[in-house]
Amino acid sequence: MNLTLLKFSSEDCGTCHRMSHYDSIVSEELGLIFVSVLLQDVQIYRKYRNILLSKYPKKEGMGWPTYLLVKEPDGDFEVIGEVKGGMPKGEFRKRLSTILSNNENNQ
Question: What is the pTM of this model?
């Protein structure tokens, strides 16, 4: 099953920009499909907005950036985990790996 990592971020977010140096690389190393969803990119944001709002209906409590690990983002999606806020590459990999491991154990 292919899982997709959606990165919700903003063009004017410095932390989001710093993490863009490695977030897609790490997600691909872990076998994930990576999609960057910039809030300024109206077309792609509209496509994935319902997934973000399912977790953050009023966008309160989001981190910058917010990563949602999703099954079937283009259909009957299911959010299986999240990582939010800035962190070093190793910590980012560790948190994603933990979500993936927990997901495998729950299947």
Answer: 0.94
